[in-house]
Design goal:
Structural class: mainly alpha
Number of domains: 2
Low-confidence stretches: none
Radius of gyration: 21 Å
Shape: flat
Number of strands: 2
Number of helices: 5
Helix content: over 70%
Mean pLDDT: 92
């Protein structure tokens, strides 16, 4: 078996797995009843996933955890979070974070 055929088998297998797992919730959602505690826990899943993506991007630098003020991503992220907290505006938080990151990259 060639490397190309193994790659195609993997792509088709992953695609089928994705369709079956996600499609099962769509097809059987009317009959599926979860325990209220499970439903409550699932409400926090998007925030947990977002945190799992964002925190390493902000805190890791060159493969190591860096909480120092020289970490431009972390400083910009904290500033964006403060702007979001004060203004409740996602647009202003993005502008503040990107602007801070750009300025720190250019001048620090």
């Amino acid at each position: 078996m060639t490397a190309q055929s193994i790659t195609w088998i993997a792509i088709v297998g992953i695609a089928l797995t994705t369709v079956l797992t996600r499609g099962s919730f769509v097809a059987f959602a009317a009959r599926l009843r979860l325990h209220p505690l499970v439903e409550e826990a699932l409400r926090f899943a998007p925030a947990a996933v977002l945190g799992a993506i964002v925190v390493p991007a902000l805190c890791l630098r060159h493969g190591r955890v860096d909480f120092s003020p020289s970490n431009a991503h972390l400083v910009a992220g904290v500033f964006a979070a403060l702007v979001m907290w004060r203004t409740r505006s996602m647009i202003w938080a993005i502008v503040a974070g990107m602007g801070t990151a750009t300025l720190l990259r250019l001048y620090a």
